[in-house]
Structure formats: C-alpha cells, structure tokens
Structure prediction request, 131 residues.
Amino acid sequence: MKKSGSTATDLSGFAKVKTAVGKVNSVINTIGMWIYHLRKFVLAAPVVYYALKIAEYNRANLPEQVGLNLQATGEFTHMISRDMAVMGPLALTAACLLLMFCSRKAMYSWAISVFTLALPILLLISNVYPA
Prediction:
C-alpha cells in the first residue's frame, strides 16, 4: 500500500515541476516575442550611435574643404565642404535605416546601413592622413 501512496506523491511532484517549467517557458516566449517586435530598434541602435560618433569626430577633424576621388597624382577631382562630408554619409545611413523600418526584411537594409559607416571613415582617411 505504501507504493500506491508514493506514486501519487511522485505524480503531484511531477505536476508541480511541469507547472514550473510551463511558467518559465511562458516567460521565455514573452521575452522572445518582445525581442522579435523590437528587433528593428535593437538593430538600429548601435548603427545610429556609431554614425553620430563618427560624424562628430569628422566634424572636428576634417579640413574645411574635403576632397573626393583621390587621383594617383595626389589631387582630388571634387572638393566639397566639411558640412556636406559629414551630413552626406549620415543622411545615407539614416535613409538605409528608414528603409529598414519600412521593409519587412530588416536585415538587408540594416546590413547596408552598417556598410555606410565606412564612408565617413574613408573620407577621413583620404583627407587627413595623406597630408
């Protein structure tokens, strides 16, 4: 008779564990759902942060006139203002992020926005370090 009582206790213990696992699973599913719904904001946050930091750095370190398309002779084919060199890549990154928020496929335009962060760095390298 003790065996049948022991089995009932085991089943109620199993039911408690099953209930606890169900609650943990529910919490994990809720967190996953929120991350999925906020994925575009989570992806955009570091891109926006670094784009603004690079723009701030370029505004302080680029010369007044920024050259584009460095030739083998050391001359630039086009000259633009510092403000245009800072705001142009920043606007391009913002446009890519806007496309990301409007698109169902967030990863494509997010990846392009990450690659646009190289443009201000390349402008800085080509205009500051050769001099």
Observations:
- Residues 38-128 form one domain.
- The mean pLDDT is 84.
